[in-house]
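Reviewers of the previous submission asked for a worked example of the structure-prediction workflow described in the proposal, so we include one complete record here. The input consisted solely of the amino acid sequence. No template or homolog information was supplied to the procedure at any stage.
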Amino acid sequence: MIELKNVTKRYKDLVVLDNITLSLKSGLIGLCGKSGTGKSTLLNIISLLDEEYEGEVYYNSINLKNIKNKEKFRYQNFSYVFQTPILFNLLTVFDNICFSLSRNYENEKKVKKMLSLVNLKVSLDQIVNTLSGGEKQRLSLARALFNEQPVLICDELTSPLDHSSKEEIMALLKKISKDKLVICVSHEEEILTKYADSIYSIEDKKIKLIKQKQTNKECKIKKINNFLNFKVMFSFVKSNLKAKKIRSMISYLAVSLGLTCLGITFLITSNVSKSIETSLLSSINQNQKIIKLKQEETFKEKYACEESVLLDIKNEFSEIKNIRTYYLSNFENMFLDNYFTLQLDTYSVPFSELSLNSINDYKLLNGEEVVYPKITKPITDEEMILSLREKDLKRICQNLNINNSLSSLTHYLENRPLNFILHVNNPNWSYQDQVYLDVNHFIMGDNLSIYQLNNKWNEYIFEERMFLKTSFDLIGGDNLPWTLKKIYCFETENGLNLINKLYEKYDSLYFEFIDKNKIYVTKQNSDHLSFSYLNENLKNYFLANNNIYFTYDKLLVSSFANLTFLLKNENEVISLIDELTFSENNINYLTFDGDFVYGGISKLLSENNIFFDIYENIDILYGRKSISYQEIVISNKIAQTLFNKPLEEIINQTIYFLTIKDTFLNKQMYQNYFVYCPLKIVGITNQEDKFFLYGDKMWLSNFYVDNFSYNYESVLPTYCLVNNFNNQLIDDYLILNPNQDIINDLYLLLDYIQKGLIILSSMAIISSILMNIITIYLFILENRKQMGLLLTLGIDKTSIIKLYLLFSFFIGFKALMYSIVSLFISSLLIEYQLFKTLKYFSFLSFFKMIFAIGLTSFMLAIIIGLISSFNVIKNNSLKILKEK
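From that input alone, the workflow returned the following structure tokens.
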């Protein structure tokens, strides 16, 4: 059966076996000798556990060096019983014997037969670590006999047994040696002599025959499976993890932490992306573009427009009533003396409320005033009509020594005029003048002011009577300090409506809205847009100015430039003003709670900000468009937020528009100047997601001028927002479409966030891998001898690898289950914190994430399992068995 020819074994320069030639057939073979003489080395060579030798070894005429699958060959032909039982202590008796086969009736029957053969009376399901030392030894022998391999190797099997047990075991070995080769190593030559057919002794590196009685019976190679049964592997892994509950739990949690961190990376990245898309990007009209001048500069030059140009314009627009002359000069700074006196016979009465400003701002009689006495002849430029208050009437009558009544003064003026003198003086210029003006008529009014019928009367007084110099250059300096800045303007009944029409037609002129009835006309280099050109090339656009409606062109997000509130009760407005007039912090950047809607800079990137749009971009769900700047169309979201009523009940309700006009820092406190006005709701749109106000394309500028007395120059539109624009404008205009840049920058930011989170999660995963490797390494140390036993018995190495993979998969699966639970909870929490709702939660996205981390867990299990198994299979199995 086994034949050794000239076998020599060396350990470096030390010869252990020297030129051994031996032939072993069936029967019980005894091998004795002192410790260290090479008995175990000889057995290792015979059983293919040691291939580093000189000479040849044959098994049934097969050279062992030519066998490719040595583990399988060893498992099919050799079985082992060791001096110290090496068993799977956490498995059952059945699994220890029948670890490569499934459990069925036939296998159970055979296992019971083996147990009976070795005289071991235990249950098949009894856990091995509950057996005594002698029972474990018998179980080891039963395992060795189960597969009926042709060769049984017993290494010091009888050493730990008492005399009767030794006799019993040797008798059993003698019995079974009739059908196989049994090689028994022992120091007890006496018991070997009694039972062995042949006895060999190793002395001085040589083998010596002591007793010869062998048969020549050949044993056939038995073909049996040398793979571990999956159920046994599963039981082995499960029992080991169960035995070390705390360590296993730490391992589960460590791997789970890594997987959870990876999952949270996906969650945060996707949810932050979704949050920004639903907030920042949802607040952006992605079809919208900004059009503005390439050179945004303040006015460099500003000249009054010629009167002839104004006359041409007046002929085109019936809304223009008159063309007036004004002087943009500070008369108080120009003249030390600047006042009127009423000249009487012996003294004069000062009327300091009348001055050069009164002449500059004189009013034209429109025919509706009641004039005392009636005008019966033309009014000359040497006279003026006074508008008197009751106290002015009384004062004049007293100084005239007449009754204090309209009739008395009227009668007086029918006979003689009142003589008024304008006194002006500036000693620095050596300039002094007096202008005499008669008053033959008066009207009663609320203010002391001057009226005339000549629309150029102030021009006559300043230029012809006072001989003051004038200039159309409204910004540049003048050589003479008494030069007046002269300008022409239109008088109209509705300046806001007219100014829109003027801008649409005349791009080279600048129209400055002074009050509801007065419009200055200038020529200048300014940063306002060409409205006529925009009208020819664009549709659905509206105009704005960053002083009132701020647009951040790099993000294309807009909102009111200052903190703005919409409230439904004037008492709430007053209360809010009282609360916020003084503040320690800039309130533009604070958040507020209350029964109102607010927006502005503080919520520039929020979809809950207050926005503006034109009618053309939305459908009015209920009501009509506004026809004045005291009316407003609102979105359905504003309507329901403030009123929460049916639409028909909200129409004609009043809301209050409250905003900050200016803020001052006063002794480390902010002082906020608020303005507000009521707005009648006349229409509601179908916009249900955002807070929108609606008007025409010039609504923003005109609204602030009309309601809050803003200077029109400060709110003149400097850019327009337009949808679906494809035309190419002239070179002076800059077309901004930052949406793609926004998206690119956004996802670049998200990419950085994701990379940072991946680094953190990778660190957690690496830590969990190390923890898992440590756990499996401890598993290796604790089960090293069992693994060595499997290798020694000839179990295929792939089974060892599968065992470690299963162990790693088991940990990974448990960790994955923990991760799924924690990620599900985390996903809901993150979703709610970002959106304050769970409506965006997607099970499909969640399952995709679980699939990703499940795949990661699977890959980690493979990596860890392979690393761990390699640590075992690379070592010599017998060396492992001899470790303490």
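The chain has 27 helices and 38 strands. We consider this example representative of the routine output the project will generate in years two and three.
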